[in-house]
Design brief:
Shape: globular
Low-confidence stretches: none
Distance between the termini: 40 Å
Largest sheet: 7 strands, mixed
Helix content: under 10%
Strand content: over 45%
Order of helices and strands: EEEEEEEEEEE
Mean pLDDT: 96
Radius of gyration: 13 Å
Length: 127
């Protein structure tokens, strides 16, 4: 069993930056991929980014490529999502999620593949 807690959301102006943090407790993370998902009102949950178990592979949604950066620290059992050049379209509840995955790559096309989710943190981009 893994427990996931996100933090770092808030209100930011367009063009601004935020860093979301994720703390994971429970088992060692050496065989788990970490994903970031978001859900805006009235929309389905969508994948934003993921990072493979040892941090070798990453993946990003086209809408955030070049603006967001995912990272992790297995020793500290944490992950981060650095978000730059934020746009109003980035407004959503952001979730950190974990799935058992020992490969050097990861995917974010199916949120249901991630078994453990945090409670989410709200990101609002508005002037």
């Amino acid at each position: 069993q893994l427990y996931v807690v996100e933090s770092g959301g808030g209100l930011v102006q367009p063009g601004g930056s935020l860093t979301l943090s994720c703390v994971i407790s429970g088992e060692r993370l050496d065989y788990y991929a970490i994903g970031w998902f978001r859900q805006a009102p009235g929309k389905e949950r969508e994948g934003v980014s993921c990072i493979s178990n040892l941090g070798v592979g990453t993946s990003y949604a086209d809408s955030v490529k070049g603006r967001f950066t995912v990272s992790r620290d297995n020793a500290k059992k944490t992950a981060s999502l650095r978000m730059n050049s934020l746009e109003p379209e980035d407004t959503a509840v952001y979730y950190c999620a974990v799935k058992y995955w020992g490969e050097n790559w990861c995917m974010i096309n199916d949120p249901s593949e991630y078994a453990f989710y945090g409670q989410g943190t709200q990101v609002t981009v508005s002037s």
